[in-house]
Amino acid sequence: MVSIKGYKNTGIKLSNRFSSLAISSTPAMEEESESTKRPNWLDLPSDLTANIFKRLSVLTILSDVSLVCTQWLKICKNPLTWRTIYMPKYIDANPWEMEKICYNAVKLSCGHLESIIIEDYYGTSDLLKLIADNGSHLRCMKVMNYNIVTDEEFSDVVRKLPRLEKVFVPVFHTAEATLEALGRSCPLLKWLQYNSCSLDSCDSDKMAFLIAETMPGLCHLDMRGHKLTELGVLAIIDKCPLLEYLDISFCLNLNEDLKKRCIDQIKDLQLPYVIRKGALTRKGD
């Protein structure tokens, strides 16, 4: 059983704004008419309260809401509360403390996790392994890291997540093992973001060939930063006929025929920006 404790060292000032919501009616309030009486939040059905909690941040639930009363604590421990975990980037937060909070939230999901999005850079190997162990129903995953996790480690995690439909691949030098694992192990995959800032054209094309060969069902592909050649682009549009969104905004050397085919085939196409006569335009406009 996972315990929920207050988190005092996150570097974020937390309010106790929820505690007042759970206070029972005072004698003065009881004298008021039924039409003007202030509602007691504890009288809400548990499923409705849980639905409200899902709209709050993980930090708020674990640091504030769970401390209000035993009834709310029980709801906070319900695995269904943690089907979706969203961790935004907190400017003043200690990343290691935030990782602990996220780790605890994943444990509380008890295998019911469906979506996890982490916008800050604390996606460690231990956290990823825990996500994999609780992710039999996981459909969406975005985990950032500062190269703490290797391509091989990430691919091992992906192989345990066969229901993935939407995934953000961390920026490795290359992600050959991860892309192959995604293509072979995640047949429902429809959305892939794999950006790069360091790959040369040869490596970028190699990644494109892997995607084209193993992910024919993609509808959304973001390869921003990849210096693809025409061969890489052609492989993608040939083998991924369902694509509606494609970002190849760092591919600078498309011939006119291939450019026209991309424009005709892809509903939302992100082509490179070029400076033309002092104006910033897209190739193909």
Written description of the protein model:
Residues 38-85 form the F-box domain. It holds the Pfam family F-box-like. This is F-box/LRR protein. GO terms for molecular function: SCF ubiquitin ligase complex binding. This protein has eleven helices and ten strands. Helix 6 (125-133) runs parallel beside helix 7 (151-158), helix 7 packs parallel to helix 8 (176-185) and helix 8 (176-185) packs parallel to helix 9. The chain has a domain at 155-285: Ribonuclease Inhibitor (Leucine-rich repeat, LRR (right-handed beta-alpha superhelix), Alpha-Beta Horseshoe), CATH 3.80.10.10. With 285 residues, it is an alpha/beta fold. Helix content is 35%, strand content 12%.
CATH architecture of the domain at 155-285: Alpha-Beta Horseshoe
Head-to-tail CA distance between termini? 58 Å
Q: Give unreliable regions as ranges.
A: 8-25, 274-281
What is the helix tally?
Answer: 11
The total strand number stands at 10
Largest sheet: 8 strands, parallel
Q: Which strands sit side by side, in order, in the main sheet?
A: 1-2-3-4-5-6-7-8
> Rough shape?
elongated
Q: Indicate the mean pLDDT.
A: 82
Order of helices and strands: HHHHEHEHEHEHEHEHEHEEE
Radius of gyration, taken over Cα atoms and rounded to an integer in Å: 24 Å
What structural category characterises the helix and strand content?
alpha/beta
> If you consult CATH, what is the topology of the domain at 155-285?
Leucine-rich repeat, LRR (right-handed beta-alpha superhelix)
In quaternary terms, these chains amount to single chain
The CATH class designation of the domain at 155-285 is Alpha Beta
CATH H-level superfamily title of the domain at 155-285: Ribonuclease Inhibitor
Question: What is the share of helical residues?
Answer: 25-40%
Question: In percent terms, what proportion of residues is strand?
Answer: 5-15%
